[in-house]
Amino acid sequence: xxxxxxxxxxRDQYNPLRGxxxxxxxxxxxxAARGEMADLQWLWRHMQDxxxxxxxxxxxxxGYIESLDWEIRTIENTDQILAAEQAAVLRYAxxxxxxxxxxxxxxxxxxxxxxxxxxKIRTGYGPFVKRLEYIPCQYWNYRKDAKQWYFNPEARSGxxxxxxxxxxxxxxxxxxxxxxKPICRHFFAKQLALADWDVALENGANQAVFMIGPPGTTPExxxxxxxxxxxxxxxxxxxxxxxxxxxxxxxxxRSRLPYFDRIEYSDRQIVMAATGGLLxxxxxxxxxxxxxxxxxxxxxxxARADAAAISEVFQRQFDRExxxxxxxxxxxxxxxxFDIPRAQESTSQIIEAISALSWSGxxxxxxxxxxxxxxxxxxxxxxx
Length: 384
Description:
Structural class: alpha+beta
Radius of gyration: 32 Å
Order of helices and strands: HHHEHHHEEEEEEHEHEHHHEHH
Distance between the termini: 65 Å
Helix content: 40-55%
């Protein structure tokens, strides 16, 4: 059962994007720097929910996490018998976690928000865990002087909440430079450009028409001419007295100002921030071409970097608790590792590579070769 239950509050009826200004964003960032997270994290959540570029960039960055595979590895130069025992226990512990891939994505999400906190939901048997439940970032505060996290169940503004009683019940990942901070600035600039562009399009859709009355027009006639002007500008036919004139002002030119260029620039900056500057767009034309392959390889490279960071979090905050509980006082000989499976070579490609090595004077370990091929290898008898 979860010990960190959120409660409905005023934020559920509050949209932080309403009346948003740059000064307000800066004030939220200042509060977050003091450890008051609720306002800024709530804004970032709505930003991601609202902007398709932000949502797509986050999804692309975290998409490859679902393809991660994990294994328990042995530390070199350690007791192999002890390592085998520890590996069996640690593997059993990870197999009990029902949402391991989801938990990995939530840990990687800290790259955007600055931190991510998961609660260990126990199985009821020793230190084993059945789920790692993500608790959204707006429900946490952090007191830097005491290096203490506080649970804020109603996501209230200010430094409120209850101090974490036992950090071992949580998995916490912290990142010093959250990507949502620069992304939010470009998101705000984009919203301003979109709003101005909509106004320009609305004004430019209808031409401004002015009727100039004939000389010597009396106030009484002005009222009559105004009625005529309204009929003329509403696509009705009408008559103008001699000496009258019509002047048309074209406002459509304003709608052709470089709004789209500004929006496109913001989108590119958002994607660059989300991908560490490696990508400028989310899609590449020509699937299977060099450009498309380079795009995929870039995302795989990011996923590998994220996988390394996720592995370190699990090693510190999951492995140690399990191993210390079952092997108190013993040297830790194994560790958990996330990684993306490399492309599998065909059997013929492996055999061809082995033949080339053999001609070069190299010998392949039989056990490793059997694992690679998935086949049992036996030496043929002479003359057979």
